[in-house]
C-alpha cells in the first residue's frame, strides 16, 4: 500500500500537475493540503476519471484538505480537529481506506511570531497531540500525514541552512517540542526511519532560486502508528514534481507499506 501526502498550493492552479503526478506514481491514497477552493469547486469528477474517489474539506482561497483513494471511496470519520468547535479553518480530515485510518492535516504556519498566529499554531498543535493519542489508543493502523509546518532540526538533513530561519515559526523550540511530543507518543517519522541521515527536503520557496540551488527544508511528514511502522518498506520524496512548470512549492512525500 502506497500512501502519499502533497501540499498542492492551490487545486485550481495545480490540477494538471496533480493529475499528471497521480498518473505517473499511482499512490493508493493521496492526502492533499492547501486546496484553496470551496467545496463546490473541488474537481471530484476529474479525479474520478483518473481513478480516484475523494472526500474533501474546502475553504475559499485558504487552507483546505482532501483524501483521495484509488478505486475505492474513503470512509469519512471526521472533519476538523476536536477541541474547538469555533475553529473555522479547514485543516483536518480523517478517513478509513482499506483498513487503515488516514489523517490528513495542514498545520498552521504560525508566522509572524510571536503573535496571535503563532499562538493559534501551538493551540492547534496541542489539539492534534490530544487527538493523536486518542487514535493510538483506538489501536487501528493509522497514518497522520500532511504539512506540519515544522522543520524538525537544524541539521543539514532537514534544512539547507538554518541561519536564515532562526526567527521563523517553523524552527521555534515550541514548534519542535510539539512535533517531538507526538513522536514520543509512539509515532514513527517514516522518512527518518528509512533515511536517517540523508538530506531530504519537501519544500523549496519560489524566491531566490531556492529550487535550483536545492535550498529546501522538510516540513511535510508521514507519522505511522506502531503497527504500521512494522510494515514500512520504503519512504521518499517525488522531487521531480517540484521542478515542473507551474509546480507547487512542495513535493509529494510517500510511504510504501507491506
From TrEMBL:
Enzyme class: hydrolase
Gene Ontology MF terms in the entry: double-stranded DNA 3'-5' DNA exonuclease activity
Keyword Disulfide bond: no
Family matches, as CDD domains: ExoIII-like_AP-endo
Superkingdom: Bacteria
Pfam family, one: Exo_endo_phos
Keyword Flavoprotein set for record: no
Stored PROSITE patterns: AP_NUCLEASE_F1_3, AP_NUCLEASE_F1_4
Endonuclease/exonuclease/phosphatase domain span: 4-250
SUPFAM superfamilies xref list: DNase I-like
Keywords attached to this entry: Hydrolase, Magnesium, Metal-binding
Cofactor(s) needed for function: Mg(2+); Mn(2+)
EC number of this enzyme: 3.1.11.2
Family, per entry: Belongs to the DNA repair enzymes AP/ExoA family.
Protein name per UniProt: Exodeoxyribonuclease III
Amino acid at each position: 500500500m502506497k500512501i502519499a501526502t502533497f501540499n498542492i498550493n492551490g487545486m485550481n492552479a495545480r490540477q494538471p500537475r496533480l493529475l499528471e503526478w497521480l498518473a505517473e506514481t499511482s499512490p493508493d491514497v493521496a492526502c492533499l493540503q492547501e486546496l484553496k477552493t470551496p467545496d463546490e469547486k473541488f474537481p471530484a469528477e476529474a479525479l474520478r476519471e483518473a481513478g480516484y474517489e475523494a472526500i474533501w474539506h474546502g475553504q475559499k482561497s485558504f487552507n483546505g484538505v482532501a483524501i483521495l483513494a484509488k478505486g475505492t471511496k474513503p470512509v469519512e470519520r471526521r472533519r476538523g480537529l476536536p477541541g474547538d468547535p469555533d475553529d473555522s479553518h479547514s485543516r483536518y480530515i480523517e478517513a478509513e481506506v482499506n483498513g487503515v485510518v488516514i489523517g490528513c492535516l495542514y498545520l498552521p504556519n504560525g508566522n509572524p511570531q510571536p503573535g496571535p498566529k503563532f499562538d493559534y499554531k501551538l493551540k492547534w498543535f496541542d489539539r492534534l497531540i490530544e487527538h493523536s493519542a486518542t487514535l493510538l489508543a483506538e489501536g487501528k493502523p493509522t497514518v497522520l500525514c500532511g504539512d506540519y509546518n515544522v522543520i524538525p532540526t537544524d541539521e543539514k538533513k532537514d534544512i539547507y541552512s538554518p541561519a536564515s530561519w532562526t526567527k521563523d515559526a517553523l524552527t521555534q523550540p515550541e514548534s519542535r517540542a510539539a512535533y517531538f511530543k507526538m513522536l514520543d507518543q509512539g509515532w514513527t517519522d517514516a522518512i527518518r526511519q528509512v533515511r536517517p541521515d540523508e538530506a531530504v527536503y519537501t519544500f523549496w520557496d519560489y524566491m531566490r532560486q531556492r529550487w535550483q540551488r536545492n535550498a529546501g527544508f522538510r516540513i511535510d511528514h508521514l507519522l505511522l502508528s506502531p503497527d504500521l511502522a512494522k510494515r514500512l518498506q520504503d519512504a521518499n520524496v517525488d522531487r521531480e514534481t517540484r521542478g515542473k512548470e507551474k509546480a507547487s512549492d512542495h513535493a509529494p512525500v510517500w510511504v510504501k507499506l507491506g
